[in-house]
Design a protein that fits this description.
The complex is a heterodimer of chains A (125) and B (451).
Chain A (H helix, E strand, L loop, with lengths): L7 E3 L3 E3 L5 E4 L1 H7 L2 E6 L6 E2 L4 E7 L3 E5 L2 E8 L9 H4 L8 E8 L2 E2 L1 H12 L1
Antiparallel strand pairs in A: 1-2, 1-10, 2-3, 3-9, 4-6, 5-8, 6-7, 8-9
Chain B lengths: L7 H11 L4 H4 L5 H4 L11 H13 L9 E2 L12 H7 L2 H4 L11 H18 L3 E2 L6 H15 L6 E4 L5 H10 L6 E3 L22 E8 L10 H9 L3 E6 L1 H6 L3 H4 L3 E5 L15 E5 L12 E5 L5 E5 L6 H4 L12 H37 L6 E2 L8 E5 L4 H10 L2 E2 L2 E2 L10 E5 L6 H16 L1
Parallel strand pairs in B: 1-13, 3-4, 3-5, 5-6, 6-7
Antiparallel strand pairs in B: 2-8, 7-8, 9-10, 11-12, 12-15, 14-15
The chains are: A alpha+beta (125), B alpha/beta (451).
Chain lengths: 125, 451
């Protein structure tokens, strides 16, 4: 699994980029969900989100999941193209698969890359 | 399914786990006097006696097949049902119609649902159909839920035409209790001749759904294209409640740009049955499929390249999405959806067209003749399909009473729902009404006119 070291990770498998404010779903989560066929962003630009707020709904062929915001702040950008290409979440979770960008993001309980990798490995075994 | 017995040993184990000593103790919460209430029941009957008694009771019912001539529609219609429909329904493979939770094991059930969906989508001019709801009214209410979910609850208003079936409007109000929705347009005292564009004034940026009926409750045919464009301009969705028999002959709501088309498929192979069970159909555009309630079957190929059917997009279903699903009513009318699919397949395109044309021609013959009777007349001048509003020289209830005495079930008394239409009957004519029956109605109404 891949977990870039410049990102922070939540226990519910979202990533947060402190430099850009971007939020997305981790590589581990996308591989657990398998083929993602639907994504709906549940917040609009200009809205304020709290840590733990549901910001997106994702459906794969077998499961449905909600994505919770790992950071609080104002939503400055929403990846509108994502709903047209939900498979992007599988192919490029840390790049084109970003969901929203949050300004002034204060994070909740997040982990560094190494700790997150360990956390995922514990769940797999 | 395997029969799972409960032995005394298992029962005692369960009692022990929940911390109860005896079975009696388990029912302690139920007051003693309510545990075995004395029921005032007659003596038990033998099977032979019971059959005789039930036969006698059933003989007290009158029905439109043997005893009565009917011109009553208003949402449920008397059509001919080919014998093969019942024959297929009663096959054991189909009679237990619930889609199993390992659905792919039941390829036959899935195929029949897939065919039903395909036929319905074709009929309404829409891209997808689900596997049905309880009836037309609940399907219409599910359209409100879809629109509500599509806008994530941010648009709080629905616009309903007063000429949508009053029972459907009542069910929608029941379903949406607690959703905090504002309803507009649904005013039975409004100008009923205003035409559909009248609703445009109610549609704003807060409107999630506009609901109209086609033909409307009074049988009138309108092209809703302009209204639909106006709704879309405000970002709202439009649901058309449609009669399936009329759709055979008319421009489809899909062609008009409708987002959701619902209705009752009872006219397609389902008897009147004293009011139900019926069959709610629900069709929509592909882009709304993730917000659509209910089951959806798709066709694919299996590992060996053979045609196979699967439940598509199950992840959006209630048992997975739980409280986040659009709807938490999981029941559909699987068996009746099959009846409807068999009806459509057996009649085929030309057979269905024949049914629609017979309904249309007979209704227009009846309307022309009825309006010639002194004191009677057609209430509206718009084109109609197989149902029309007849204004009467006296209260509709009295007219119906006279008809009933002559073995005729008259039309629907519109005064019940529309204060301005007290002396008005909604008359439905189908292929089941012979020329002789229509002439019998004419004679009976002439007597009313002469009174």
């Amino acid at each position: 699994m891949n977990a870039p070291s410049n990102l922070k990770y939540s226990k519910s498998d979202e990533w947060f980029d402190p430099s850009s404010g971007a939020v997305g779903l981790s590589d581990y989560a996308q591989s657990q969900l398998s083929d993602i066929v639907f994504v709906e962003i549940l917040v609009d630009e200009g809205e304020t989100v709290e840590v733990g707020k549901a910001i997106a709904s994702v459906e794969s062929v077998k499961a449905s999941a909600e994505i919770f915001s790992p950071a609080a702040g104002k939503v400055i950008s929403v990846n509108k193209g994502l709903s047209e290409k939900p498979e992007t979440l599988n192919s490029d979770p840390y790049g084109a698969g970003w969901m929203i960008k949050v300004e002034g993001g204060t994070t909740g309980d997040v982990m560094e890359s190494a700790a997150y990798v360990k956390y995922c490995e514990e769940r797999t075994h | 399914m395997t029969y799972i017995p409960i032995s005394p040993k298992e029962r005692d184990e369960m009692l022990k786990i929940i911390g109860v000593g005896t079975l009696d103790e388990l029912f302690d919460a139920v007051p003693k006097k309510h545990r075995f209430p004395k029921l005032n029941l007659p003596q038990a009957l033998s099977e032979m006696e019971a059959l005789a008694l039930l036969g006698e009771l059933a003989a007290g019912n009158e029905n439109v097949r043997e005893h009565m001539i009917s011109f009553l529609g208003a949402g449920a219609y008397n059509h001919y049902i080919p014998a093969v429909v019942d024959h297929i329904l009663r096959r054991g493979e189909f009679y237990t119609a619930y889609t199993p939770y390992q659905p792919e094991i039941s390829q036959g059930t899935l195929q029949s649902i897939f065919e039903y969906q395909s036929l319905m989508a074709n009929l309404t001019g829409m891209e997808v159909s689900n596997a049905s709801h309880y009836d037309g009214a609940t399907a219409a209410a599910e359209a409100v839920s879809l629109a509500h979910a599509q806008f994530r609850g941010k648009r709080k208003k629905i616009v309903m035409s007063p000429t949508v079936n009053p029972q459907y409007r009542a069910v929608i109000r029941t379903y949406t209790q607690g959703m905090g929705l504002e309803e507009a347009g649904d005013d039975p005292t409004a100008d009923l001749e205003a035409g559909p564009e009248f609703l445009t004034q109610f549609i704003d940026d807060n409107t999630s759904l506009v609901i109209v009926q086609y033909p409307d409750f009074f049988g009138r045919i309108y092209d809703y294209a302009k209204l639909i464009d106006a709704a879309h301009a405000k970002g709202a969705l439009v649901c058309v409640v449609a009669n399936p028999t009329a759709l055979i002959m008319l421009k489809t709501p899909g062609e008009m740009g409708a987002d959701i088309v619902v209705g009752d498929a009872q006219p397609f192979g389902i008897p009147l049955w004293y009011g139900g069970p019926y069959l709610g159909f629900f069709t929509t555009k592909k882009s709304f499929v993730h917000k659509m309630a209910g089951r959806l079957v798709g066709e694919t190929v299996d590992a060996r390249g053979q045609r196979a059917y699967v439940l598509t997009l199950t992840a959006r279903e209630q048992h997975i999405k739980r409280e986040r699903a659009t709807s938490n009513i999981c029941t559909n009318q699987g068996l009746l959806a099959l009846a409807s699919a068999v009806y459509m397949s057996v009649l085929g395109k030309s057979g269905l067209q024949e049914v629609a044309e017979l309904c249309y021609q007979k209704a227009h013959y009846a309307a022309a003749e009825l309006s010639k009777i002194d004191g009677f007349g057609l209430c509206f001048s718009e084109p109609f399909f197989h149902e029309f509003v007849l204004c009467c020289p006296k209260p509709a209830g009295e007219v119906n009473q006279h008809l009933l005495e002559n073995g005729i079930i008259g039309g629907y008394d519109l005064g019940e729902d529309y204060p301005a239409l007290k002396d008005h009957l909604l008359i439905a004519v189908t292929e089941m009404n012979s020329r002789e029956e229509i002439d019998t109605l004419l004679e009976a109404l002439k007597e009313v006119s002469h009174d």
